[in-house]
Amino acid sequence: MMRILGVLGLLVALYGGLVGTYVQNAPGFEPTSRTQERIQGNLIDVASIQGRYGVITLGAAMVIITGGIDLSIGAVVGCAAVLFGVLTQNGVHPFAALPLVVLAGAGVGFGNGLLITRLKLQPFLVTLCGMFVYRGAARLLAGSVSRTATVEAQPEFAASLQMIRYVLIGKDASGELLFPAQFVLLLVLAAVIGFFLHRTAYGRYWYAIGHNELAAKYAGVSVDRQRVWVYVVCSALAALAGVLLFLDMPSIQADSGGQYLELYAILGAVLGGCSLRGGEGTAVGMVLGAMVLPVLENLVNIRGLKSDLIPAVIGLTLLAGTILDEFIRRRSRARH
Amino acid sequence: MTTPRLTATAVSKRFPGVVALDGVTLTLAPGEVLAVVGENGAGKSTLMKILAGVYQPDEGTVELDGRPVRFAGPAEATAAGVVLIHQELNLAENLTVADNLFLGREETTGGWLRVLGRRGMAARAAELLARVGLPADRVTRLVETLPPGEKQLVEIARALGTAVRVLIMDEPTSSLTQKETERLYAVIDSLRTVGVSVLYISHRLAEVKRCADRVTVLRDGKNAGELPKERVTHDNMVRLMVGRDMKQFYPKVHRTGTGGRSVLALDAVRYRNGPDTPVSLEVRAGEILGMAGLVGAGRTELAEAVFGVRHLAAGALALDGRPLAVKSPVDAIAAGVFLVPEDRRLHGLVTAESVGFNLSLPNLDRLRSRFGLHRRAEADLHATWIERLRVKTPSAAQTVGLLSGGNQQKVVYGKWLARGPRVLILDEPTRGVDVGAKAEIYALVDELAGRGVAVWMITSDMEELLGMSDRVVVMHEGRLAGELAGAALTEEAVMRLATGGQAG
Lengths: 336, 504
Known about the structure:
The structure holds two protein chains of two kinds.
Chain A: H1 2-25, H2 32-65, H3 73-89, H4 94-117, H5 123-141, E1 144-146, H6 147-153, H7 158-168, H8 181-199, H9 201-211, H10 213-218, H11 223-248, E2 251-253, H12 261-271, H13 283-302, H14 310-335
Chain B: E1 6-15, E2 18-28, E3 33-38, H1 44-51, E4 59-64, E5 67-69, H2 74-79, E6 82-85, H3 97-101, E7 108-109, E8 115-116, H4 118-131, H5 148-160, E9 166-170, H6 178-193, E10 197-201, H7 205-211, E11 214-219, E12 222-228, H8 234-242, E13 262-271, E14 279-284, E15 288-293, H9 299-307, E16 312-319, E17 322-324, H10 329-335, E18 337-340, H11 344-348, H12 355-360, H13 364-367, E19 368-369, E20 372-373, H14 375-388, H15 405-417, E21 423-427, H16 435-450, E22 454-458, H17 462-468, E23 471-476, E24 479-485, H18 491-498
Parallel strand pairs in B: 3-10, 3-11, 6-9, 9-10, 15-22, 15-23, 18-21, 21-22
Antiparallel strand pairs in B: 1-2, 1-4, 4-5, 7-8, 11-12, 13-14, 13-16, 16-17, 19-20, 23-24
């Protein structure tokens, strides 16, 4: 509870800063309605990115709740984006390519899960290796992919591609962002995952496994099967985010598409209240946690700071947040 | 004769390099409470795990109600009515009591979606808790907020929720206070009256006398004998467990009594985040000062403050009459004040490392040479203490976590004895240690006290407290409730002080 309030407070402060900066920077002759319009447009841009980060954050958070970690998310995002481009370029209809790519992602998660549960390998190592393997796979598939390349190779896909883009990203044919469809998608997915986490027996198992795997095992929970499942979901969501990335961006480079996203996802999950020790976290927290980084990035950008500063600002803000969180936690423990 | 509820016939189990069980036989009648006792490593836990489906026997058969069974896992055993309550508490502490009661067998609707039927479970949870004497408001509490005794009762309530017919408990009272233990006994009695059979492992002999209808003794993975209720005595059990007579279980050979000079003195000591009441006490040469109190009375915390793990907030320490400043364990160790901690696997040993590594750890400053370590001096140190403490280990290179509890504890003693202690603070000095090793540790501590080492022994084991202490101080809610010695030192007096009463 405390942690959700914390991340909520952080978001309020960031959004406040964002709006404040807009008002402050507005040229004197600009009518207020125009400023509002610009703020609105910017918030929609931010929400769009929040949606995509949120999708992978949900997956990372589920893995973290069961006491695991997935470092391969970013590579899977990149690989999935490239795979989607290659498939459509080679004549697979986008409507078929989308489920195929997500299924391939699920397969990757299944592999990760099996290595972790059957061979008893450490999640950190398995997914670290996965990170290199899937990045390499992406580079083998193609150097880069893009919607234009696909449409050039398969002109008949142009319409369906644009339709998927409109539904999942919210961009019209001219590339203007009409509504943050990715954020809507995030809310839908979060509702589904929240339902499983908080209202079904599976969710109980994930929390129990994350906190005390033996307890779950002795209670008759099929621990291995549950753990494989969360890796499957995590990688499938990463693959979905890869498709989103492909649809949103002008082009995807195989060696950099989706880079560092696993860290963003893990940070989002932790900001949202997931403990890396496992067994903690809520769906609402995950969404809130995933919203922090895009606002922060945006704030740095519009304040006219050098974009080189972004990583440092993010790191320092998170560090401050972590220190504050630990402080609150100690306080509340001392009161017990 | 009625069919026994559970029989194990000629059960054997081998692990790489060890024969854990060698043809063990055991029967359990319906509604019977059978205690299984034996030294650590005697095979009790292995036997329990076989009965509960955690392990499968290599040879022999297990029969439930006369039908042979072979459980593939604990879930299958639970389904058949055989439930193991494990030594370490097996609850998911981040979940509520109700969640834990139904973990793995939730009431659900919606087919494969498995939506939780929370209202129904809450009602049933309250009923189950009532059967173990816990109030209904515990249902929605997080398990981590409960005291250890209530956690144990929650585990039993969980077993009751599964139509249990055989309840197996592995050292159920090792983390309980006297009062909580009494509550557990009452629950066991009520289980017996409804025909549930109980198998009970314990190191506490007094407890076995109190609860069990019959005692089965294991030694070195074999049956060592059985005692009917009327023949259950301390001496009989110990004789079967260790295979020899042990009149001198609590030796008082070397000690000189309570009249020695003060070695360690605490003067109005308070520590950070501790209770407001200052504590003063002294530990004298030639005696063993026992410290009693309930779990949470602040005994361990006080010891940790003296050892420098916690920070002193007020008061002073003195060693041999001279002021002693302890800011961290480094200072305490330099002064010769050593702590044998309560949780040896967490604070006493680096369990993944070797016996030798652990013996060397606090002595590295003395083993240092210009080029690293004096390998020969280190090997001598290992050999000396492994031999003097009779640590049963193939070599100093053996991983310490693989030794039995008693031998691990000897290594903890060894690492300090190698440094030469002036004050030894023993926190639960023989917890989870088998009877044979216990006797050796008692003899060792007696000898140390006799040589002038001040021994401060914190213990929750009443027999140990009364058997070993020359003088006892009792703590209650962070303060010293009283001191007992000589004829005034009785179980009743200790319990009265520990629970907040006056010394009578």
